[in-house]
Write a structure and sequence with these properties.
The protein is of the alpha/beta class. Helices cover 46% and strands 19% of the residues. It has 7 helices and 6 strands; from the N terminus they run E-H-E-H-H-E-H-E-H-E-E-H-H. It has helices spanning 15-28, 39-44, 46-51, 69-80, 95-107, 137-154, 158-169, and strands spanning 2-7, 32-37, 57-62, 85-89, 112-117, 131-135. Helix 5 (95-107) links the parallel strand 4 and strand 5 (112-117). Helix 4 crosses helix 5 (95-107). The longest helix has 18 residues, at 137-154. The chain is elongated.
């Protein structure tokens, strides 16, 4: 059962953000969606999203410290630990919300981290959702662990280096032999 965790901002008209997030929900096809909100986005944006959800199960989680990356990271990580298979979308929300949810997704080893793309207007805002760009956090973790394996190798701890490298080698897009 997959859970899609999404940050929710307010956008220009509120409905514009709702449309983008609904586009992402449609592409990911989760069993459940968790909306990470501020009080303002819960009140002003979430109602537009809920109209388009149909019967999909959802949960709204609000935090008042929308500009405190460290606080949000901890809160989002705790939220993510409740679910087995997660996908995280950081299309919307404050910069701190996006940074925190991305960092928490890496830490929680989310299956995917994504954001919605599309053509932009003169202000740089996406005017139509046309795609989803994804990253697999396991690649980030694998790169870090392979660096550790290299260090273990330099310290002549060959067995530990080999075990660590083997456990993450498959996660990287380029095969390392």
């Amino acid at each position: 059962m997959s859970t899609l965790i999404m940050t929710v901002g307010t956008g220009r008209r509120r409905s514009d953000i709702a449309e983008a997030l609904l586009f992402g929900i449609d592409r990911h096809r989760p069993n459940k969606v968790v909306f990470l909100c501020t009080a303002k986005s819960e009140e002003e944006t979430v109602p537009f999203i809920v109209k388009g959800l149909g019967e999909l199960e959802y949960e709204v989680v609000c935090h008042s410290n929308e500009n405190d990356v460290q606080y949000l990271y901890r809160a989002y990580l705790e939220q993510m630990k409740k679910y087995d298979e997660i996908v995280v979308d950081f299309t919307s929300g404050t910069k701190a919300m996006s940074a925190a949810v991305f960092a928490a997704a890496i830490s929680a080893e989310a299956r995917k981290v994504s954001y919605i793309t599309g053509p932009r207007d003169s202000t740089g805002r996406v005017i139509e959702s046309t795609g989803v760009v994804s990253l697999s956090p396991v690649e980030v973790i694998a790169e870090r662990q392979l660096q550790r394996a290299r260090e273990l190798f330099r310290l002549c701890d060959f067995h530990a280096a080999a075990e660590l490298a083997d456990s993450y080698r498959q996660a990287l897009p380029v095969r390392i032999s």
